[in-house]
Amino acid sequence: MMSTQTEKISPDFDWKDIDTVLLDMDGTLLDKHFDDYFWEQYVPEHYSLLHNIPIEQAREELLGKYREVENTLDWTDLNYWSEKLGLDIPELKLRINHLIGVHPYVIEFLEFCLGRRKKLYLITNAHSRTLSIKLDKTAIGAWFDRIVCAEEVGLAKEDPRFWEKLQGMLGFDPKRTMLADDTEKVLESAEKYGIRYLIYVARPSSRKPVQYSDHFPSIEFFKELISPAND
């Protein structure tokens, strides 16, 4: 895929300076096509049937509801959305779980990190029920020293206070920690806290164009972090 931007900031670091690797899940390790399709197409279809309204009207109403809680814990809370929309959101996710997939080169990257004895943590805003569905489907959970949901911390990753609480839980050194995420607001909050190595995933969905960050080093695939130059 072609990027709409002319310049890409490439990662430039030495793995010897990193002890801990924090990885987001949706869009970073897993193809965000599942989430985009689910919330933008599949849920509106069922919402339109429930309320007997055109699907475009349903989509417009839902987008408004989504924006109201964007960047908060409610956005990823399946119980919240089941109650708010009158739909069984976990059941709907299970019906199309065949769309859940791991991005290319993710497993190779996890092997690379473990081979160099890095601490690996999965850090996600995803609700615990969503996490369970996706780990059951992909089996990536076994690679991590620990998996932390934002609901366990009590704040969304977009809140700089999240990282302070997370550090208290995991005991990492921010100056020797890498975070990879597909959301710039998350990287900005981590930067404010002092996490040194920040990587923007510019290809969160296999179905959408690559979009590099103007501020953070960007990658399309994790193989870019395991090249000889970064070994």
From TrEMBL:
GO terms for biological process, alphabetical: DNA repair
Cellular component annotations (GO), alphabetically ordered: cytosol
Taxonomic source organism: Desulfolithobacter dissulfuricans
UniProt name for this protein: Haloacid dehalogenase
GO MF annotation terms: phosphoglycolate phosphatase activity
InterPro entries: HAD-like_hydrolase_sf, HAD-like_sf, HAD-SF_hydro_IA, HAD_sf
Matches recorded under PANTHER family: GMP_IMP NUCLEOTIDASE YRFG (PTHR43434:SF3), PHOSPHOGLYCOLATE PHOSPHATASE (PTHR43434)
Domain of life: Bacteria
